[in-house]
Amino acid sequence: MNPVFEAFLKNTFNEAMALAEKSDVLRIAPIPPFPPSGYLCEFDVSYLRKRAGGVVELKTAPVVAGLLFPEDYLHSTDPRLYLRVAWVVEPWDIVHPNVRGGVVCLGSAFAPGTPITALLWELYEIVSYQNLTLDEGNALNPEACRLLRGQPELLAELLARLKPKPFLRRRREMRIKVNAI
């Protein structure tokens, strides 16, 4: 393995574990061997799913995503690298403009070598519907755009009910009362 890529993977592991330690929403599991080039990431969020008959409903269950750093990750010239790095493992019935067939679109502005912390934030914003487009021409999943545009009340309910938990725990201030003697 290229020593620069190996150092990147070791640093990535440390960053991923440190970020997960600060979050109540994210659980992360490295995929062996060490240093890992892949991770399973479980996000404690709600999501939209499509039932039989085309009905879209809100479902409360974790979304499990995968991240994989291919060997050319740091220097890739592949203009579609943003489609090879992240995917939704489960649920398979998620309805999201950035997700199709499990593949997650991280956006065309995605760059090789993006740190895992930025990827995890981006994934969280996608699976918690903070990052989505309803423009079919700019979405990986045009059908999801049509479904969401066709049910504006569902999108409004989603945005009202989801109110995702903060990705990072808020620091709690310690308040000490000093009693006068």
What does this structure look like?
This protein has one domain: Ubiquitin Conjugating Enzyme. With 181 residues, the protein is of the alpha+beta class. It is 28% helix and 20% strand. The strands form 3 sheets. Strands 1-2-5-6 form a 4-stranded antiparallel sheet, covered by helices on one side. It has a two-stranded antiparallel ribbon with strand order 3-4. The chain has a two-stranded antiparallel ribbon with strand order 7-8. It contains 4 helices and 8 strands; from the N terminus they run αββββββββααα.
Question: What tags apply to this protein structure?
Answer:
single chain, 181 residues, alpha+beta, Ubiquitin Conjugating Enzyme, 4-stranded antiparallel sheet, two-stranded antiparallel sheet, 4 helices, 8 strands, 20% strand, globular
Short characterization:
This protein has 181 residues and is of the alpha+beta class. The protein is 28% helix and 20% strand. It has a single domain, classed as Ubiquitin Conjugating Enzyme, CATH 3.10.110.
